[in-house]
Design a protein that fits this description.
The complex is a heterodimer of chains A (114) and B (108).
Chain A: E1 5-7, E2 10-13, E3 19-24, E4 31-37, E5 44-50, E6 53-56, E7 65-68, E8 75-79, E9 88-95, E10 104-105, E11 109-113
Chain B: E1 4-7, E2 10-14, E3 19-25, E4 31-37, E5 43-49, E6 52-56, E7 59-64, E8 69-74, E9 83-90, E10 96-98, E11 102-107
Parallel strand pairs in B: 2-11
Antiparallel strand pairs in B: 1-3, 3-8, 4-5, 4-9, 6-7, 7-8, 9-10, 9-11
Classes of the chains: A mainly beta (114), B mainly beta (108).
């Protein structure tokens, strides 16, 4: 079946603009995770959902970042008033349900803020 | 101090060499994950383990819960094994904390 998909794959935006990054998890996966990866670094946790409920948003850097998963499937990560330091690869992963199952990663969205 | 430490950061090997990448962690975990990140950027899960040892083809992963240490071994390495290998620990709610990765280059 289809894996995790993300769109857009690449996004270039000007400083101050809002961006919305989309994640489409594997069908039937309960848990959805957002991570951010700076160049040359390992990914870092941003937030995660079980179904439509946001369980933990402790990794979101500040209140310009928000995420939703209104119907428990597709999720959107929104960054308002983007800054150059927001430039990174944003990755989404999904798993059947929580910690007991492996995570499947999407291809990521490369965000560049100019 | 990072919760997940990997070593080495960079590793160059000759084809057919036996390779070991180490991972130490400092907090409680639900499971430990080994991931492979290809040069094109995609991340693939190799292993998820919470005890003992797992083997898949030429890859072997071991974990010692008491010592909070895991190793990833590659036998008979091949240039196509060249990638970044990332150790990540799973917390109770499932989110992962990642190490910085080990960049492996296998020369023919």
């Amino acid at each position: 079946g289809a894996g995790v998909s993300q769109s857009p794959r690449y996004k270039v935006t000007k400083r101050g603009q809002d961006v919305a990054l989309r994640c489409d998890p594997i069908s039937g996966h309960v848990s959805l995770y957002w991570y951010r990866q700076a160049l040359g670094q390992g990914p870092e946790f941003l937030t995660y959902f079980n179904y439509e409920a946001q369980q933990d948003k402790s990794g979101l850097p500040n209140d310009r970042f928000s995420a939703e998963r209104p119907e428990g499937s597709i999720s959107t990560l929104t960054i308002q008033r983007t800054e150059q330091r927001d430039s990174a690869m944003y990755r989404c992963a999904s798993s059947l349900s929580g910690a007991r199952y492996e995570q499947y990663f999407g291809p990521g969205t490369r965000l560049t803020v100019t | 101090k990072n919760e997940v430490e990997q070593s080495p950061q960079n590793l160059t090997a000759q084809e057919e060499e036996f390779i070991t990448i180490n991972c130490s962690y400092s907090v409680g975990i639900s499971a430990l994950h080994w991931l492979q990140q290809h040069p094109g950027g995609g991340i693939v899960s190799l292993f998820m383990l919470s005890s003992g040892k797992k083997k898949h083809g030429r890859l072997i992963a071991t974990i010692n819960i008491q010592e909070k240490h895991s190793s990833l071994h590659i036998t008979a390495s091949h240039p196509r094994d060249s990638a970044v290998y990332i150790c990540a620990i799973g917390r109770s709610q499932g989110n992962l904390i990642f190490g910085k990765g080990t960049k492996l280059s296998v020369k023919p």
